[in-house]
């Protein structure tokens, strides 16, 4: 399905575009970080260290290279306490003494999973719908697309919030996806392959995956896929090869599957890439608002950082940087694919 | 087809979409699991009280009757009565509308004022440092979640510098203008106080659009500058500024307006979350809090009002489009 020509143009675009290289590098780093999280993080992302009795208070430590000062009043008078960031907590800790860096790394998992699965579900829902509308045209098209247009009358975040409202009363559905590395480390499988196995075994055994939110973002975004697929189908159905296939008696399903779908894949792939970025942003907004059901996401940590204490700037800053880098990376890959796959889209004004 | 006829047609289409929105919103509530009576009444309420309450909310009628009643109500501007407070939903919603409109307009103004000159400069000095700067700015701006930007502005700007508040809304624009113009009052209740409150939320909401507009203006101008008419206007000795802003920009505006029209949903969705970040008392924050309280009457009403606003602004954008480009085929 992928011709040599396409492969070549994707590769040559990557060679010539610095931004495409940056995007690819960012996404590779984030994907590796999310996958290998148990090996990377220095602490359990949920472990709290609030000073009680004989345990040391590790709340609100600044990131490495920064220090905080505050004045503590004791019966003996006032002492100024200076705390310095250290390598043990490279991005500092939050008000519960949780390691911000560990949460940053684990937060990438939820964002990427929701982004990829959400865009995948939206593609599966939208593409057949749009292809059918465009291919059959006429009344079918009208009926199908009028319904879809109503979806577009809602701003996506508003529609997402409304859907969350619907699903909320049955509880946010989440499921634990087991972490294969932690499982292996705990059961001593491949012990000689997995480094730091004691450390890995102490990590969370599963990732809380927000099912409800993933469905909501897919339901909000499928319409875009339907529109793009419809546009493609309309132009493809007039092609000679489709007429030829019809004349030899191919069924509609065969034509759709063997001719229309493969020839409309390019813009769908570009759209799907851009949608991953859009869905990461949407998911982070929903979890910022507390409509997610998971506690370990970038959006949720930003909300905590805002409400907890405003002088601890790093708590809200770090997860936001995660979102920005992930979205920039995915967007740059989208630009790269668009420039490489679709020469008809005008780039920098020609010449 | 004349402009008038075109507007009539678009309005009819808009009404159809609004009917769709009302229907979807009605269905959403009926898909919601759980009996609203149980959510609203305390657990110790008697069976009789429950039945009376259900009767009063019209929950005992068949669904199609409820739907009909709801449609008729909405058509008359009656969204029902807030389940939590017992006050008319339309009243509660309309009070909050001006704050949201003010914020959206301010954000658009911020975006246009910054983005258009930035895009023009960037297109003029292609492949110079200022162009790369503008390109990177627009890439980062498009990829930044606006609620995080808002939180960052609160932490790094509002908390550090006294005059900018971390949230809330000052006087309304109209009140502030009146106070400033009639009493010469700038600070207390005047236009300066209005500006102090709206500045950070407007930047938060406007950044995405600033980035997008910069990008569009730049690529549109680059396309347009190469055309023959530009050479002709230059040849007749028109100053460069006039060539760029009067001739080239006008032709660039058409694709810009198209994309902006498509992005209106992002503006409204962005307003919802920006309001939540800055405790700005508009429709978005109201919607979010209605969801927290499960007050479905308010949720439905707010979504319908947002949908109607969306449709109206879309029609306005279309009309603007026609005005800017008389060649546009109104079919």
TrEMBL record, chain A:
Major location category of this protein: membrane
Keywords for the protein's UniProt record, in alphabetical order: Cell membrane, Membrane, Transmembrane, Transmembrane helix, Transport
Name of the protein: ABC transporter permease
Compartmental location: Cell membrane
InterPro entries hit by this protein: BP-dependent_transpt_permease, MetI-like, MetI-like_sf, OppC_N
Any single Pfam family the record assigns to this protein: OppC_N
Sequence intervals crossing the membrane: 21-41, 112-136, 148-167, 207-229, 265-291, 311-333
Domain ABC transmembrane type-1: 108-334
Assigned protein family: Belongs to the binding-protein-dependent transport system permease family.
Lineage of origin: Archaea, Methanobacteriati, Methanobacteriota, Stenosarchaea group, Halobacteria
Membrane topology summary: Multi-pass membrane protein
From TrEMBL, chain B:
InterPro entries documented for this protein: BPD_transp_1_N (IPR045621), MetI-like (IPR000515), MetI-like_sf (IPR035906)
Coiled coil segments of this chain: none
Keywords, comma-separated and alphabetical: Cell membrane, Membrane, Transmembrane, Transmembrane helix, Transport
Source domain of life: Archaea
Transmembrane segments: 12-31, 103-123, 135-159, 194-213, 253-273, 297-324
Subcellular location, record wording: Cell membrane
Positions of the ABC transmembrane type-1 domain: 97-321
Membrane topology, record value: Multi-pass membrane protein
Assigned protein family: Belongs to the binding-protein-dependent transport system permease family.
PANTHER family reported for this sequence: DIPEPTIDE TRANSPORT SYSTEM PERMEASE PROTEIN DPPB-RELATED
Stated name of the protein: ABC transporter permease
Organism: Natronoglomus mannanivorans
Lineage: Archaea, Methanobacteriati, Methanobacteriota, Stenosarchaea group, Halobacteria
